[in-house]
Amino acid sequence: MNTILGDRAVVLGGSIAGLLAARVLADHYAEVVVVERDELPAGAAHRRGVPQGRHIHALLARGQQVLDELLPGFTAEMVARGAPVGDVLDEARHCFGGHRFRRGPSGLIAVCASRPMIEDLVRTRVRAFPAVRILDRCDVVGFATTADATRVTGARMIRRADGSAEEVLDADLVVDATGRGSRTPARLEALGYPRPRVEQVRIGLGYTTRTYRLTPGAIGGDRAVLIGPTPDHPRGGALQALEDDRHLLTLLGVLGDHPPTDPQGFDAFARSLQFPDIADAIRDGEPLDSPVAFRYPASVRHRYERLARFPDGLLVTGDALCSFNPVYGQGMSVAALEALALRRHLERGKKPRPTRVLRDLARVIDVPWSIAAGGDLAFPEVEGHRSTQTRLVNRYIGRVLGAAERNAEIGRAFVRVSGLVDPPSSLLRPRILTQVLRTSRRRPAPPASAPGDPGPTRPARRTTDV
Ligand SMILES: Cc1cc2nc3c(=O)[nH]c(=O)nc-3n(C[C@H](O)[C@H](O)[C@H](O)COP(=O)(O)OP(=O)(O)OC[C@H]3O[C@@H](n4cnc5c(N)ncnc54)[C@H](O)[C@@H]3O)c2cc1C
User: Fold this and answer.
1) 227-238: average pLDDT
2) Per-residue pLDDT reduced to its tens digit, 379-419
3) What CA–CA distance (Å, rounded) separates 56 from 114?
4) pLDDT the model gives residue 440
5) Lowest-pLDDT range, 2-11, 138-147, 185-194, 441-450?
6) Cβ of 52 below 6 Å from ligand 1
7) Range 32-60 average pLDDT
8) What are the residue ranges of CATH 3.30.9 in the chain?
9) Does domain 6-49+116-199+300-374 have CATH number 3.40.50.300?
10) pLDDT at 426 over 70
11) Is there an atom of ligand 1 within 6 Å of 13 CB?
């Protein structure tokens, strides 16, 4: 029997992080109200508040495991809805650091689905909890607090309907899951608190995405082709099988070298990648829509856990807490891990203490942040402090990627770390370390540019994207 810790928790934002927070709160609050600005669709559809949903959303292996834990049967339901699944290493092509990984069973499952479908299933499952109520078309405009502002006592909101007036939704706990544009830093300041320190890694990433119906066997039986950008070749792409026999192709470039949205330029960019698999796969494919772009200037981490003062009754989660370079595919999985961490606090049977929860959420973020921020710092043009450890790790990872070309055990160890299943230290196990040092090779030279495209540019030292 779960301990009920309060009458109502209010979650701001009804995307993945908000829904998963609501899922764990539903076991410990009499009512959980999710307040969402958008009108939520009845099924799997794009919506304004989640513009990134048009682009590839890889669910990391650990995210898939946690979703199955929080929402039992999640993977089976995704499969029943038509999501292709496969072994992460054996049924996908990984080309990272200029190396094509050798295949082999990883024991990890890749669930391939569009972002709207993932969100729709999570929303459907979370909405089914009797305690959960989702209020859509409601703008959160601020917090309600005690007179001395030491405690957040609710959320102020306005319904998106003519003649609406501001309402206060009282709450024992308010969880901000409004994403990257979260106003909590400004709202804290207005209440007399310091803003959290912000860490940023400016990667100047551009995504352009298009949906296809590919010819049968265009990528063999594989579920995905992943080509990562490297400092020598700052372009990449991900082609992923989806529900409804579609494939989604996201092309990407860092440090301002962005894929165009005109179809010819898009195709030429695909041909300029370091590996031909994606260009070959789409050559005879039928595009189902026009290319759409997304700009992602920087990974951003808010250090709320380091604030000396923070109001009671308030938490922050998901992208509002930390937004990762999406190339690493971490955001949804980290949101799921944060929900697990919050659940551990709720299960103690006492009202959660924000400073303690935020400290634990920071621990959840540490590893994925070190992977994403550390990986981005391998690009010499990206500004940021490179500790000796960062330099050594990046050099070693380069060798891991080289060794994965010949040795599937090393590829398996790598995808377990990048999938957030194993800690990065597992790549230093004696057996792996010895094989990496023995097997790794030097990076091959990048191929020539494709006709119609000037090829990847060495970017300028600073990005001016924002
Ligand atoms: C281009 C791109 C590609 C990505 N690819 C991947 C990937 O491959 N794998 C992966 O795991 N993650 C990926 N991510 C990250 C992923 O989208 C997020 O981490 C994930 O959606 C969780 O974010 P969130 O719920 O915290 O915030 P968001 O998804 O941004 O949602 C915030 C929600 O809050 C609502 N909201 C905002 N303000 C208000 C307000 N004032 N009142 C009420 N509601 C409000 C919005 O409408 C929205 O529903 C990608 C991100 C980007 C930008």
Assistant:
1) 97
2) 999 999 999 999 999 999 999 999 999 999 999 999 999 99
3) 7
4) 63
5) 441-450
6) yes
7) 98
8) 80-114+200-296
9) no
10) yes
11) yes
Chain length of the chain: 466
Calpha distance 222→224 (Å, rounded): 6
Task: Give yes or no for residue 333 CB within 6 A of ligand 1.
Answer: yes
pLDDT tens for 69-83 read 999 999 999 999 999
For the CA of 182, the closest atom of ligand 1 is: 38
* Sheet hosting strand 138-145, strand order edge to edge: 138-145, 152-159, 167-170
Three-state SS sequence of 371-432: HHHHHHCCCCCCCCCCCHHHHHHHHHHHHHHHHHCCCHHHHHHHHHHHCCCCCHHHHHCHHH
Mutate to test the pocket of ligand 1, among 10, 19, 37 (most ligand atoms within 8 A of CB): 37
> What CATH number was assigned to the domain covering residues 80-114+200-296?
3.30.9
pLDDT, one tens digit per residue, over 105-116 is: 999 999 999 999
Residues of the chain with CATH 3.50.50.60: 6-49+116-199+300-374
Share in percent of the chain as helix, strand, coil (round to 5): 35, 25, 40
Closest ligand 1 atom to 331 CA = 19
Distance 319 CA to ligand 1 centre (A): 6
Q: Answer whether 18 contacts ligand 1 (Cβ < 6 A).
A: yes
Report whether 75 contacts 64 (CB < 8 A).
yes
d(CA 257, CA 270): 13
